[in-house]
């Protein structure tokens, strides 16, 4: 199975604040101690930037990101 939009964490930049984990209501992240780990790529909503927009360390990029902003939001139903 492939999924063309999901977060990738730059562990060197991450300060383990937990904001991404706390933000996402789709089960994409889990915490290992204080470290966020992407465990459910398929749950990420195409075009959503909810966790990236909250990350204070600019540690989140997306697989499949071409830099385009989706008009009218991502359609996630309010998570971002
Ligand atoms: S982009 Fe949105 S759906 Fe995907 S992990 Fe972040 S908050 Fe969750
Ligand atoms: S929001 Fe950014 S800095 Fe905070 S835990 Fe997530 S990736 Fe790390």
Automatic annotation (TrEMBL):
Residue stretches making up the 4Fe-4S ferredoxin-type domain: 5-34, 35-65
SUPFAM superfamilies: 4Fe-4S ferredoxins
Gene Ontology MF, one: metal ion binding
Keywords: 4Fe-4S, Iron, Iron-sulfur, Metal-binding
Keyword Acetylation attached: no
Membrane-spanning ranges: none
Protein name: Dihydropyrimidine dehydrogenase subunit B
Source organism (scientific name): Clostridium magnum DSM 2767
């Amino acid at each position: 199975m492939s999924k063309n939009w999901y977060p990738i964490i730059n562990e060197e930049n991450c300060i383990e604040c937990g904001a991404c984990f706390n933000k996402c209501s789709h089960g994409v992240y889990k915490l290992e101690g204080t470290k966020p780990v992407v465990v459910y790529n398929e749950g990420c909503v195409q075009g959503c930037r909810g966790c990236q927009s909250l990350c204070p360390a600019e540690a989140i990029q997306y697989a499949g990101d071409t830099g385009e902003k989706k008009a009218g939001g991502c359609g996630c139903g309010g998570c971002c």
